[in-house]
Amino acid sequence: MKFLTINMTEVAKIPAVIQASDKVWATPPSGIKVEASYVCLGIPFDGVPPNTMVSFSIVEAESAEAIAAVSYPTMLAGATIHRVPILEMPVGAMGKEEKKYRG
Fold first, then answer.
1. 30: CATH
2. What is the pTM of this model?
3. What angle is formed at CA 35 by the lines to CA 34 and CA 38, rounded to 5 degrees?
4. Is the dihedral of CA 60, 66, 67, 70 positive or negative?
5. What is the residue range of 61's domain?
6. End-to-end Cα distance, the chain
7. 42 backbone dihedrals φ, ψ, rounded to 5°
């Protein structure tokens, strides 16, 4: 299953979060991979505190355990992580896909 991962970290905690993240992804657990990752160059939405780094990733995971294995160490280091399940839709075929799911 694919997830949109939103990671928010206070600037003061970034070194610890990066260190934890690098350690996790040096030998990632089986059943999870990052397909894309982006760091925002500004505040992406209302409610994000000043001096907060926000990044987005598209992650494919086979289990909740795989997600926990990569999330927990960075959360302990100070990151706030939100995961939203997403459905991949082909470009230019939204109508066809919508009919398929409607039945």
1. 3.30.70.120
2. 0.82
3. 85
4. negative
5. 2-102
6. 22
7. -165, -175
